[in-house]
Amino acid sequence: xxxxxxWVQRIGVSxxxxxxxxxxAGPGTHRFRNIRAMYGMDTNAMPHMHLxxxxxxxxxxxxxxxxxKCRTTATPRHIWTTLVSGMPFAQVSALRxxxxxxxxxxxxxxxxxxTGAAGFIGSHTVDFLLNSGTAVVxxxxxxxxxxxxxxxxxxxxxxxxxxxxxxxxxxxxxDALQALPPDIDCVIHLAARAGVRPSIEDPVLYGSVNVVxxxxxxxxxxxxxxxxxVFASSSSVYGNNKKVPFSEADPVEEPISPYAxxxxxxxxxxxxxxxxxxxxxxxxxxxxxxxxxxxxxxxxHKFAALMKDGRPITMFGDGTTERDYTYIDDxxxxxxxxxxxxxxxxxxxxIINLGGSRTVALAEMIRVLGEETGVDPEVNxxxxxxxxxxxxxxxxxxxxxxxxxxxxxxxxxxxRTFLAWLDDxxxxxxxxxxxxxx
Length: 438
What we know:
- The longest helix has 27 residues, at 411-437.
- Helix 6 crosses helix 13.
- The protein has helices at 7-10, 13-19, 26-38, 76-84, 89-102, 120-131, 148-154, 174-178, 196-201, 203-224, 258-277, 299-308, 328-342, 362-373, 397-403, 411-437, and strands at residues 56-57, 65-66, 111-115, 135-140, 164-168, 184-189, 228-234, 280-286, 289-290, 313-316, 322-323, 326-327, 349-354, 360-361, 379-382.
- By secondary structure, the protein is α/β, with parallel strands linked by helices.
- The strands form 5 sheets. Strands 5-4-3-6-7-8-13 form a 7-stranded parallel sheet, sandwiched between helices. Strands 1-2 form a two-stranded antiparallel ribbon. It has a two-stranded parallel sheet with strand order 9-12.
- It contains 16 helices and 15 strands.
- The radius of gyration is 24 Å and the shape is globular.
């Protein structure tokens, strides 16, 4: 029943609905034993098939552990999770590999782990995957770098999906990693301590979260035989590169901030695990991402909020520094293409720029924000901050070739969409605050 992925339909829905909770009962259990025997699994040691015993955080139970009753329906992912329950990880890997060869539809049985799931890019990635029919395990520690309440709101839509499992944990916690579900076959690693300037104040923290956290994740992937990884790097690794646009082949041995150094270290560790463990890795160097849900400490969000409140903004330097602003929808297109790339048969290691391939000067960005908000901005100019680069500018030829990536969003158009979201978000929070106080 594995052919063309139809084994889920043939596994016996009656067994899933009623007989799964009876030890040794029903065609469902029998077919599970046949499946395992087909791939050399130890059927004598097989635990009874209890779909009801899969623990997950459910939005329909206000975050409580769900799964105390047998489900009335079974998705392919539920079947797979039950199938591999109690198996050693090596056997899970063998079964996964064998099934991939037998049926390309095996992807429906697996889940993608997204770290940093409640963040700006992470939550958009989660929404995209869920809307495309992919099961997602979202991990986030909800740290206090910025208001955790913002992150809570970022995942409101995701929590409406039964195919979404939310886990609140730190990547550096080995117990939390060991407790992750067994049906993960791909990781999108977006979790990081962000920000160039804050990294100068606390480089040890950045090394711990961004470097040690990434290494812990890579070691967990090795232990679980999870092969496919999309890693979020940063354009900051280029430092003050004099050559433009920035190419992936340019030297990156001279980062000028702890944040940039931590991201480059993450790339290097990813490569070592690719070499030693046959992992398939795409490291994406993001260039100044903006759009709805952008972090409140980033310039576009911060400046727009200050302008709307009639307050002055602080401009570092003379306004000539340039950034390659990349709209979030274009970034998600690149992430999607990267998932396809790492899932090819042969392991790959690629570092790829994702940018808008156009620079916008700081003064121009402020001017566009003023025009789109209808505000004449009051600007206080101060000296350039240590760690800031003069320019970022992405050469995206490699992304176009390998990912089919084509950034489409004009900067002003993206700013308008962001401002519309910002207005909606402010109204929603104001309404919530009014309701809470009444």
